[in-house]
Amino acid sequence: MSLVDALGYAASAAVLATFCMSTMIALRIAALVSNVLFMVYGFVDHLYPVFMLHAILFPVNALRVVQLQRMAKSTVRNALDGRAPIFLTGDKTVHEAALVLSEKNIGALCVLAGDRLIGIFSERDILRKVVAAGRDPDAMRVAEAMTPNPRTVGPETSLADALSLMTDGHFRHLPIVDDDGHVIAMLSIRDIPSEHQITYHQSKVAQANRGAMTTARITASFRRFVAR
Question: Which superfamily does CATH assign the domain made up of 76-194 to?
Answer without folding.
Answer: CBS-domain (3.10.580.10)
